[in-house]
Structures are given as C-alpha cells and as structure tokens.
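Hey, I was hoping to borrow your eyes for a little while. No rush at all, and the record is pasted right below.
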Amino acid sequence: MNASFLRRTLLGAGAPVAAVVFAVALSSLALLVSGSSPFAAYGDMIENASRLETFVDILNEATPLYISGIAAAIGFRMNLFNIGVEGQYLLAAFFAAAAGGYFSGLPPVLHVGLILIVAMFVGAAWSGLAGALKVTRGINEVISTIMLNFIAVGGIIAWLIREWADDTGATNSGTTPIDASGQMPSLNGVVEIFTREISKGRQLTSVLLIAIAVGIAYHLFINRTRIGFDFRASGYNPLAARAGGVPPKRMVMYAMLISGACAGLVGMAEVLSERYKYDQSFIQGLGFNGIAVALLGRNNPAGIAIGALLFGFLNQSSGILQITKSATPEIVEIMKGIIVLSAVIAYEAVRRIKERDEAQSAAEATQQIEPSVHEEVVA
C-alpha cells in the first residue's frame, strides 16, 4: 500500500467524519445557546430511535425522501438543478390517486401498476416541460422548475376547490379513495419474523421496496450503461462530451424526463400505503428536502440512503424533544441545516485538497520527464 493510496483513502473517509464532528459541535452549540443540554437532548433522541415502532416511523419517513433524493441526484449528475421535484411529485400524486380511485375493480397487480405508471408519466411530463424550455429556448431549469412548482401546486388546489366543492362552498375529502386492490400491504409481517410484534398501529410501507428498486436501478443506470456514462461525461465536462459525440440537448431531455419519472414516485407512500387518496392535507416539502438529502449523499445511492435515514431520524426526534422538553422541536430544523452545510464544506475542502495533490503529482511527473527528454535531444 503506497502513501498516495493511503492519503486518498484517508481523505475519502475524512470528509464524512469531519462533517459529522463539525455538525455535532455546531448543533451542541445551538442547543447550549437555546438553553438546552446537548447530552439530555441527544440522549432522548437516541433512546427514542432505539424503539422498534420509532424505527418503523423513521423508515416510513426516509422512503419518500430517498426517492426524492434520487430524483434530484439524476439531474445533478448532468449539472442540472431540478428544483421542481416538489411540484412534480404533487402533480403526479394527484393524477395517480385520481386514476386509482376511478379505475376500481382491477386485479391488484394491474391496479397498483396503473397508479405507478400514471405517477411516473405525469412526473416525467411535467419535468420534461422544463427540459424542453431549456433546449429550445435556453431557459434556465432552475427558473422554469420553480415557476412550474407554483403552477402545479396552485393548479392542484384550484382543481380541488372546483371539483370537490359542495353546495355550501366547503371542500370534501379529495379524490375518490382507492379500493383495496390498489393498496400495497405493509411489511410488518416480514419485520416481525426477525423482531417482535410491531405495536401502536405502526405500519411499515411496502413502498420501501420500490425505493430500494429505484436506488438499484439508479446505480446500474449511472455506472453500467452507455447513456449513464454519457450523463457522467456531460456532467464532468460538457465541452469534452460534446466533442466526443454526446448530443447535449438530448442528454438534457433524458435527464429531466428520468428525474421527473422518479419524482413521480415520491408521493406513492401516501397514495398506496397511508391515505389512499389525494386531499389538501397531502404531505408537502419532500421535494425540497430531497435536494438536501442528495447533496448530503453526494449523489451516491448509498450516501443518499444514509442522508434520508438521518433526516427521518431527525424528523422523528422533533416530537420526542417536545414531549420531554429537553429542547425545542425547532432545533431539529437548525440541525438539518447545520448537517447539510457541514457536509458541503467538508466535501468541498477534500475536493480542493485532491485537486492540489493531483496538480502537484502532475508537476512532479513533468519534472521527471523533462530531464530525460533533454538528455535524448543532446545525445
């Protein structure tokens, strides 16, 4: 094992470790400033997470966040900032829930498959609109996806008010509930084989299996396919990729369509496993949190999984902190921001160190070559 390999390994491991240490230190400082004891707060959070029921809740929280993080990471791989995951998953969930409630009586596999296909199609179409604006009119995807978020959310709310308003002007419960044939069973039975009975009505969503499949597909697509190689090449060096024959506009459309299709699955945990419909209290914010999870995981499927579980853990910690009064629940949001900021700073610092090492190695290699070339010329 040479020194350069050992240094690269230490740098790769040092970034996440430094990020964790820095985040814990700053979070502790924030707790102290707010008048809370970091030891008491962390103790309550860890004790709460050690319960099986809480772990189920963490997995349920992490499942849509993971899919959202993968959707954002697909764009990031192409240096595209798909800020529209929020609107894409909400619009997709609405149409998927409406289609699931309308087409009742189908066989379970077809019913669930129909809901998933509608969700992916709507998400891809809404994201593809931003991609088309970029390749045809040169409109930055950040601006277009943010505007499309407002249109999607505002359009959904307006549609609900118009379609489900009764004679008194009050709104009803939303889309038609999905029949049992379109509902995915929980994974409690599988978990209980290895643990104990899950109490307090907790149900582990089987959309977790879809999230795992999405992560595996993302890994294989990016690292094992030709188009995935073109994605990475376009993201690393667009000019070199174009010179190598990679069509940039086509890659932009592919990235936005695939990212949007993945975003369409974010709301399926609610549609298929919890609410079985779409209403005005449908969960929001998963798209923006998914961007943070993708940044935290460095667009790596395993890293995104860790980030999603961490955010799920923090979300579940908010309630226990409020109950035990060891800290204010708002401190959780502060901790999320600190963690993401710490990770970004640590990884950027490591990137600059690696670039400096590579430049130094190249300079040393050049110095070794020049004398030999000079000797050959003299000879």
Remarks:
- Residues 331-378 form the longest helix (48 residues).
- The radius of gyration is 24 Å.
- The chain has two domains: 1-36+332-357, 49-327.
- Residues 1-36+332-357 form one domain.
